[in-house]
Structures are given as structure tokens and as C-alpha cells.
Amino acid sequence: MKTSQLPSLNAIRAFEAASRHLSFRLAAEELGVTQGAVAQHVRGLEDHLGVMLFDRLPRTLALTEPGRRYAGTIRRAFELIVEATAAVQPEPLRLQISVTPTFAAKWLLPRLGDFTARHPDLDLGIVATDRRATFHSDDVDLAVRFGRAPEATNVVADLLFHEELIAVCTPALLADAELPLTADVLRQHTLLHDSHGQWPRFVETVLGGSAAGATKGARFNQTALAIDAALSGQGIALTSRHFVERDLAAGRLVNPFAASLDSDAAFYVVTSRRPRHPAQTAAVKAWLLSHRPPYADS
């Protein structure tokens, strides 16, 4: 059969939809046309084929035996068209970004919806690791690194935000406490430590107390775990403000001290000077930097 002898594609689509729903009305809603248009398409298809495809019952449709056979074949044909179309379309380009587990969980993941909305043509592969990745050997396109600005000549480092350490806990934990807490009162609470071990410095520098008792408490190898422990009311954690800003805004966490500790370290967006995908890498980098606080460059 020549393609010029084939039925109308619109008629075939109307029949296939009606065969699934057994309703001209529901088929019309799916296709965005009127019920009368679907019924007319199906009648025209039946005239073209010379067979009845549906039995019109009072409240529904029923496929005839030829209609069942035709519907099954047409459905497989549409599936083949969908598969063939997907096969020729280019897949979204995937870029790999290397970040620490805490940055991934507490900063990046809550913002991924915004990234997807702005860049639907890009897939972002997230490598969450404390190990410092290299761009070419680890198949990484960007990295967010914590510490001092990288000095390597083959990379570009842009400041994302400075680290500002604050203490956080649930409001319920301080229900009977007078705020802000003092170093002496702090000893009555469980301190939640991460691998950076900044509690002694915080107590001495910010609270003016002795660091002698600031090493006790629960210890976690990831800051994200200390934050989660604080959210569950287990004690007071010390973390970068940027990791808990949404929890603070929502009232899930509070800062029990009227002070913070500015670190000499920061978070940097790092890219290769010769990226594999320059335009796409630049787009992801621009998106990351669009979320930095207005005082980041100060």
C-alpha cells in the first residue's frame, strides 16, 4: 500500500485514543479537540477501512474484533514512532560537579529545582565527596571547594561565599534558657561536633570562655549529620550560616548566640581554564554565582 492510500493520521490518533478510553469524550479531552471531531474522525476511518471498529453502546464504546486487532497494531506503531523520535533527538548534555557531601545536601540540592527550570537542556551530575577531584582524570567539569582560593594556574576560582560559623539548635532545646547563651550555660548542653573541630575556637573567640569543656559531645564526620542531629533536638551544632539559612528562616533552627565566627576560609566555584564544554560550563558557573550573597565580594 502506498502512503498516499493510508488513512488520515488525525483519524488514526482519534481512533487509538478512543480505543484506550472506550469513550469519544475522554479521547477528545486527551487530544484537545471536540467530541464531535473524534466521532467524525472515527466514522471516516471506518468508511476508509470498510469495517466497523466500535459498537456504539448507550453509555460506552466496545471494540469490535477488527477494532481490537487494529488498535493493538496501531498502538505498537505509535510506540515505535516514539522510540524512533527519542533515538534521533540529542540527549541533554551532562556536566559533572564535584562538591562536599554537606554542600550537596544543605546548599545545592535545595536549589536544584531552580537550576532545572533555568537550564532544562542540561543534566547536572553531582559527585559528593570530600576528596579533591581533578577535572580531567575524574571527569569533572566544575567543583565547589572549601578553603583558601586555589592558586593553580590551570584553574579559575570565583568566590561563592565566605564561611560564617554560627551555632544552631531547635527552639525547644532552649525553651527555659535565657538568650543569648553564655559560655557557662553552654556546658549544660550537648555539643555536636563535625570533622572541622571549631567548637573550642568558637567558645574562646566568640564567647570568651574556656575551651577546656568544648571538646565533649557527639562527633560526626560530616557537618550535614551534625545539622540533622541539631534538627532532631540532640544538641547544638556549629555550621556555616549558608547551610542552615532556610531552616533559620522557617524557625526550625535558631542561633542561641548574638554572634558568629568569621573564618578565613571560603567556598569557591572552580573551573578549568580549558573546559571540555565551555558554554555549558559557563552557564552552570553563572547559575551558582547568581546565588551568592550580595556581600560575598566584600
Automatic annotation (TrEMBL):
Domain HTH lysR-type: 7-64
PROSITE patterns: HTH_LYSR
BP term (GO), one: DNA-templated transcription
InterPro entries listed in its UniProt record: LysR-type_TF_proteobact-type, LysR_HTH_N, LysR_subst-bd, WH-like_DNA-bd_sf, WH_DNA-bd_sf
Pfam families the record matches: HTH_1, LysR_substrate
MF term (GO), any: sequence-specific DNA binding
Keywords: DNA-binding, Transcription, Transcription regulation
PANTHER family: GLYCINE CLEAVAGE SYSTEM TRANSCRIPTIONAL ACTIVATOR, HTH-TYPE TRANSCRIPTIONAL REGULATOR
Family: Belongs to the LysR transcriptional regulatory family.
Designated name of the protein: LysR family transcriptional regulator
Organism annotation: Solirubrobacter pauli
